[in-house]
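SEQUENCE-TO-STRUCTURE ENTRY
===========================
Question of interest: how does this chain fold, as expressed in backbone structure tokens?
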Amino acid sequence: MRIRVCLSTVVLSLAVLAAAPPAARPVDPKTAKRIEAEIERNRAEVVKVRRFLHMNPELGNREVETARLIASRLEPLGFEVRTGVAKTGVVAVLKGGQPGPAVAVRADMDALPVQEATNLPYKSLNAGVMHACGHDVHSSVVLGTALVLHALRDQLKGSVTFLFQPSEEGPPEGEDGGADLMVREGALDDPPVRAVFGFHVWPENVGTVLFAPGNVTAAADTFVVTVKGRSAHGARPHEGIDAVVIAAEIVTALQTVVSRASDPTDPAVLTVGTIAGGSRRNIIADRVVLEGTVRTLSEASQKKVRQLMESVVRNITEIYGAGFEFEYKPGNPSVYNNPELASAMTPTLVRLLGKDRLLDWKPQMIAEDFAFLARKAPGLYFFLGVKNPALPTMAPLHSPQFSPDERAIPLGMKVLSHLVVDALEGQSALASGGPGF
């Protein structure tokens, strides 16, 4: 996940959801016990995989060994495995023993360009690369979920597509990648996925899950403003057009786009992250470049902020007789938990966690490209607590000290397994005229 701060995925058709009763049918006690037994049986192996991935992190579009490991675990079990999807991604389809729809579960695989500063015995062996966002946990949990559901395949009413996605943190400069490319390459099309589930680790206590319908994360856009002035001697500023002064005024004025021109009930963030210009201390700069990010929850806010920004830049440069370039690049959309799907699956989460451990998620202005999957099919995205409850705090995501508690892994496998089984059960019942969701 980007901080641009990152689960897995289930997809339901909107037409079906609109007509659906409010809740999925829960798994029977016998199936629940089997899920628990399979989690325990695979726990040590899944933790071992997680530690291997943590020791051998790979950057976006370079997750070659990660993908090879995942495929090597699933192909011998009879999964229909495709590799090389969206550069290095893996798509593995598990066909259930009974007819029914398909849902998807997604994990991201890429690491970050961070030098690890933990004392873990399995710390990164790759200099300057670290799983500082927990994608090693995501991949391991989803792999473990695939192993659990494989053991239950004869009773699954439909198919499960497991997506191991490259480059959630963004592809290298000049390359394509990520969830958007997986969608464009048909990762959710064969079989057609009706719902997609995903999750991200979060610095909350182990044993908790954070979840809410509606907007989960923000749309994350980027911008570049180039101020074009005219150079002159620093002692004779009246002969030039000072791009530094103009840029400074633009930076200040841009703050009013959010603080004074945007609806405070519709959150937005505008950050100028870099400013560069000038060539020498006694020369009036003829060019300054500003770069930054915009985060919004609604499409209306996204559109308005962009328009206001361009207006600010145009008006200020015009006053000083300067020129400008304004580049605005939309990035990840907002992750949106489909309300009908969320309503249908909430009883599953309450049953597994109890109301005291199912915490309310407040929309964050972080970014996550799961949004592209959730636009293709209704999605459900949650956050898995990975903080040691005995500690007052933990290092944040993207930190060199980030170290999730591995005791969260079995719970992640349990939640995903139950969501998938309940979703397939509910959709199959609905298709046959029974009480689905």
User: Anything to note?
Assistant: Residues 29-217+333-432 form a domain with the Aminopeptidase fold (CATH 3.40.630.10). The first strand starts at residue 80 and ends at 85. Confidence is low (pLDDT under 50) at residues 3-22, 432-437.
